[in-house]
């Protein structure tokens, strides 16, 4: 269980923001912090990791105090056992893929084998290559399993897929899901990509101007209950529920559900761009 109530004054391009984050995440959950750039999403991750000190408040993980401004407790990042994955990979360029993983595992017991981790993200044949010989997607997969190799108590992902194209994003989302299902590590993702959030997350915190304004399951947070029947919309399919013939579509920062016939459902797949005519009829863009 993660419990945090932290405050931090930030100075952004939009001006001063008083970041106020009160969050609670159950052990083993996958949560996302969603919001525009400059609202404090990354700062929250960095405060959890011990890379930025809050101005005041507390952070408690599994009944252990990591930070408490009143009691002057502030555990170092090394003692927090955080697995942090950034957008820019941060791999050691002078080490092979295997050596990067060995370094992360140094001093750890009961760790998964390197071959198991490489197999999990389909990189076993690249074990002896340097980061310079890998594609962007391959580098990010190495960064993901290197973070897992540290046996973290919390897995923090700071928009790790934002620089990748759509096809690679979907593949890396599969990798993240595979890692999460295999190890069950409490995970917090920072993302502004709605399909990604819907696919990966169980819980969403919406951050606006430094304040958490909504908390809940993705569909509850982003669901738009009614469409203007006289308007047309372009959206992206983010989920298909075949059991009940429901398709879920992203429109901007909202989600809608539409019921289809079994035959209509066969015409769509996740990632399709579609036009919604009124409140029911769908056609491909």
Please provide a written account of the structure.
The protein folds into two domains: 219 residues, P-loop containing nucleotide triphosphate hydrolases (Rossmann fold, 3-Layer(aba) Sandwich); 62 residues, SH3 type barrels, CATH 2.30.30.140. It has a six-stranded mixed sheet, sandwiched between helices. Strands 2-1-4-5-6 form a five-stranded antiparallel sheet, covered by helices on one side. The protein has a five-stranded antiparallel sheet with strand order 14-13-12-15-16. The chain has 285 residues and is α+β, with helices and mostly antiparallel strands. Strand 10 and strand 11 form a beta hairpin. Helix 5 runs parallel beside helix 6. The chain contains nine helices and 16 strands. It is globular, with a radius of gyration of 20 Å.
Summarize the structure in short:
The protein is 27% helix and 34% strand. The protein is of the alpha+beta class. It folds into two domains: 2-220, P-loop containing nucleotide triphosphate hydrolases (Rossmann fold, 3-Layer(aba) Sandwich); 223-284, SH3 type barrels.
Q: How do the helices and strands line up, and which of them pair or pack?
A:
Layout: E1 2-12, E2 15-25, E3 30-34, H1 41-49, E4 56-61, E5 64-68, E6 73-74, H2 77-80, E7 82-85, H3 97-105, H4 114-120, H5 136-149, E8 154-158, H6 166-183, E9 186-190, H7 194-200, E10 203-208, E11 211-216, H8 218-222, E12 232-241, E13 246-251, E14 254-259, H9 262-265, E15 273-277, E16 281-284
Parallel strand pairs: 3-9, 3-10, 7-8, 8-9
Antiparallel strand pairs: 1-2, 1-4, 4-5, 5-6, 10-11, 12-13, 12-15, 13-14, 15-16
